[in-house]
Every structure is written in C-alpha cells, then in structure tokens.
C-alpha cells in the first residue's frame, strides 16, 4: 500500500479521535469545528509588553512590506488574468490540498500534496501568522477575546479572536499593525527557510549544472505545410518561410489548439539538448554568464562539447547577428537565485547515503517557502474578509472595500476557470 495513503488515513483517524475526545469543548459552526481557549493570553500579553520596542519596529516594517506584497499580488493577478484571456497563460492560483499519495501532483488550479509535507508546512504557516496577530493586539493594548483551533472538514487551522468593537475604535495605524502582522510574519518565515535551504544546499550538495529553455514563438497550425520526424526524437515543422522544431509530446499536448507554441530552429533544440548544462568545453558552468563567456571565445560554425546531466553533445554553433549562437534562453537574478536556487541549477548530493533524506528535506523546505510566500500574498490581497481587505477598509471605507473586493474575487475566480474556457 502507498505510504502516502497510509499516512493520510492515520492523519484523518487521529484528527477524528482528537475531535471526539474534545467534543465537550468544541463548538460547531456549520461544517467548521472550533475549540476556543483563554489560556496563553496572559503569556502572550506579558511577552509582547516586555519586548514592546522590538515588536513595534517589527510591525512597522510589516506594514511597509505588506503594502509591497499587496501591490505585487495585484500586479500578478491582473497580469496573469490578461495572459489567460490572451491564451498564453495558465492558472496563477492553486488550491493546496493534502492527498493520499506519496508524491506531489500539480494540476490546473490544484496542487495535491502528501499529507506529512502538507501538515508540517501548515503548522509552520499558521502559528507565526496567528501569534503575530496576537502580539500586535497586545502591544496596542487591544483585547484578545480568545484563541483556538479550527477544523474545516479534515483541514486544521488556528485563530485569534480580537474584541471587534474595541478594534474598530482603535487608530488606523494600530489596526494596520494588526492586519498586516500575519502576512508579514509568513514572509519573514519564508525568508528564514530560504536561508536554511541555501545553507543546507551549500553543506550537503554541490552545483551540477544550470537550467535553460529554448527560444519559442506561436504559430497557427494552418501555416504548417510539412512535418518531418528527426532521428533524435524531435519533429521538424515547416512553414512557407520558416522551420520550427517540437517534441512529439508537446505537439500532442497542443493537438486541440489552433495556435501552438513551437521552438525556433537553433542548434541546441535541433540536437535535442536536454538536462542541466554542467560543462562546456570542459569548463564548469555555474551561471548563464559562464555560458556567454565561453561562447564569446568561439565563432559561428565552431563545434563545442556540452556535458549535461543527461549526456554529452557535440553541437555546431549557428550565427545570429554576426555572433555564435547556441539557441538557449537563460536568466539570472542574484536575489531570485538566493530565494529559489533550485529553479536555476541542478544539484548533486555529496554523500549518496544521504540522498533520500536530502531529497525529502529539499522538497519539504521548498514547499514551506512556497506556501508561506503564496499565502502571504493571497492573504494581503484587497479582498474581504482576508487581512488585505481589512487593510483596504481601514484606509478607505466599507463601500469602497466591498467594491474592490468583488473585483478581486472575480479576477481570482477567472484565474481558476479561465484556462478551461
């Protein structure tokens, strides 16, 4: 039996057992179960007051960072909506749900995750988020009515319940500190795990090549006048004026589309270059600049030796604007490389006995980073009842906040259903 299925069954059983044993302390609101407590209130208040100066600076920074996150989220949402409407984008949002499987599974608008990865990430996501709200309330001398745990079906969560009447009467600045606290703490948590990931990779792994893509463009299927199968598994598509290349798999995936994405005919794709690039002419490749430097030593029609994680290739360079051209697209940003190094390069474990544990740790840490960043951005979008909607209402009024919330809600729904239309 699949270990993911066993884990899922165990989790559901334990959750159900706890809910049954604590049934006297649980209140039900529809399909949501809530367990309130007033414990820890004094501990939170005492800690917040003792370190008021630190938390005040922390939450002030949180307001600034949260506004930047909100602007980024709005830009991303609008940009992705335009791309979907233009037929060149896919869903920019996904529901992240636990699933009885031992592997990750990504679908349009849905991200299914093995239960233990999901549970660890949710715990790391929720507690800093809710505790930050509690600390923000406490340093501003705003009452916490209760804290507690919630259960939506089998999905756990936590909450901090403020005194809503008192919170509404508080100054705008105090309310902003409270509302921005959760998303900012999720971002801070994500950055903390980014640091852990980089340290872990530097200690246990060595870089093993950079990733790349091929120059591509869209053409109408009606333009294709000839299709040839190449010996290396690629397919050659000829139009009246150009020649393009594509794998059989990518062509099959686009069989129901009028316009298809094809690769431009350059040496790398024609030779079916695959795998992360480790060496070119026996020089180690760590960044895209290394590729550019080595190619600058060559002329068009020179043959270079490329070693990747999938094999060794002898490729003759083409000419593009008078310069030697391999035909790959690479990008490098030192900030993004620090945040998501696995998106730029491949890694090899130093100790093979550590391979399985290392793989688990990388997947777990990467998932935690993605969840914390993702939830922080979504939560701070100007849509009620999320924190971003409450921020907007604090700065404007209820009518404006409700109107903008409706627009954002429609855009999010379109991001889920648009790719299927």
Describe this structure in words.
The chain is an alpha+beta fold and 421 residues long. It is built from 13 helices and 20 strands. It has helices spanning 3-21, 41-50, 52-85, 115-139, 164-169, 172-204, 248-253, 267-270, 288-295, 334-339, 355-379, 387-395, 398-417; strands spanning 26-29, 32-37, 95-99, 105-107, 110-114, 144-152, 155-162, 205-210, 216-220, 226-229, 234-238, 243-247, 259-264, 277-280, 283-284, 303-308, 312-316, 318-320, 323-325, 345-349. A five-stranded antiparallel sheet has the order 9-13-12-11-10. A hairpin with a 2-residue loop joins β1 and β2. α2 (41-50) crosses α4 (115-139), α3 packs across α13 and α12 (387-395) packs antiparallel against α13. The protein is elongated and about 75 Å long. The model has no long low-confidence stretch (mean pLDDT 89).
Please provide a brief summary of the model.
The chain is an alpha+beta fold and 421 residues long. It has 13 helices and 20 strands. Helix 3 packs across helix 13 (398-417).
Helices and strands, with pairings:
Elements lengths: L2 H19 L4 E4 L2 E6 L3 H10 L1 H34 L9 E5 L5 E3 L2 E5 H25 L4 E9 L2 E8 L1 H6 L2 H33 E6 L5 E5 L5 E4 L4 E5 L4 E5 H6 L5 E6 L2 H4 L6 E4 L2 E2 L3 H8 L7 E6 L3 E5 L1 E3 L2 E3 L8 H6 L5 E5 L5 H25 L7 H9 L2 H20 L4
Parallel strand pairs: 3-5
Antiparallel strand pairs: 1-2, 2-6, 4-5, 6-7, 8-20, 9-13, 10-11, 11-12, 12-13, 14-15, 14-16, 16-17, 18-19
Helix pairs in contact: 2-4, 3-6, 3-13, 4-6, 4-11, 6-11, 6-12, 12-13
């Amino acid at each position: 039996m699949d270990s993911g299925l066993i884990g899922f069954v165990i989790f559901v059983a334990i959750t159900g057992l706890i809910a049954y044993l604590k049934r006297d302390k649980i209140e039900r609101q529809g399909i949501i179960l809530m367990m309130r407590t007033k414990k820890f209130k004094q501990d939170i208040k005492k800690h917040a007051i003792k370190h008021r100066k630190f938390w005040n600076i922390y939450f002030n920074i949180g307001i600034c960072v949260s506004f930047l996150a909100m602007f980024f989220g709005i830009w991303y949402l609008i940009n992705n909506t335009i791309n979907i409407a233009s037929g060149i984008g896919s869903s920019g949002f996904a529901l992240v749900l636990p699933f009885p499987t031992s592997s990750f599974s990504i679908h349009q608008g849905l991200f299914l995750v093995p239960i233990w990865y999901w549970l660890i990430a949710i715990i790391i996501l929720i507690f800093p988020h809710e505790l930050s709200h509690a600390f923000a309330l406490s340093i501003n001398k705003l009452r916490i009515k209760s804290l507690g745990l919630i259960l939506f079906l089998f999905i756990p969560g936590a909450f901090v319940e403020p005194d809503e009447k008192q919170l509404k009467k508080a100054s705008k600045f105090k309310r902003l500190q409270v509302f921005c606290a959760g998303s900012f703490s999720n971002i801070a948590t994500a950055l903390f795990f980014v640091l852990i990931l980089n340290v872990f990779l530097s200690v246990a792994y060595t870089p093993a090549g950079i990733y790349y893509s091929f120059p591509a463009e869209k053409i109408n299927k009606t333009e294709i006048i000839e299709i040839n199968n190449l010996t290396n598994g690629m397919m050659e598509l000829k139009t009246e004026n150009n020649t393009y290349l594509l794998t059989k798999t990518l062509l099959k995936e686009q069989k129901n589309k009028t316009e298809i994405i094809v690769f431009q005919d350059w040496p790398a794709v024609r030779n079916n270059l695959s795998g992360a690039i480790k060496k070119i002419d026996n020089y180690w490749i760590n960044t895209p600049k290394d590729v550019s430097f080595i190619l600058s030593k060559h002329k068009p029609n020179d043959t270079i030796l490329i070693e990747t994680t999938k094999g060794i290739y002898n490729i003759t360079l083409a000419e593009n604007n008078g310069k030697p051209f391999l035909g790959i697209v690479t990008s490098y940003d030192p900030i993004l490389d620090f945040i998501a190094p696995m998106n730029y390069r491949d890694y090899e474990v130093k100790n093979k006995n550590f391979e399985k544990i290392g793989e688990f740790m990388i997947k777990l840490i990467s998932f935690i980073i993605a969840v914390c960043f993702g939830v922080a951005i979504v939560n701070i979008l100007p849509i009620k009842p999320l924190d971003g909607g409450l921020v907007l209402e604090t700065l404007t009024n209820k009518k404006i906040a409700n109107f903008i919330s409706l627009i954002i809600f429609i855009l999010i729904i379109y991001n889920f259903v648009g790719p299927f239309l």
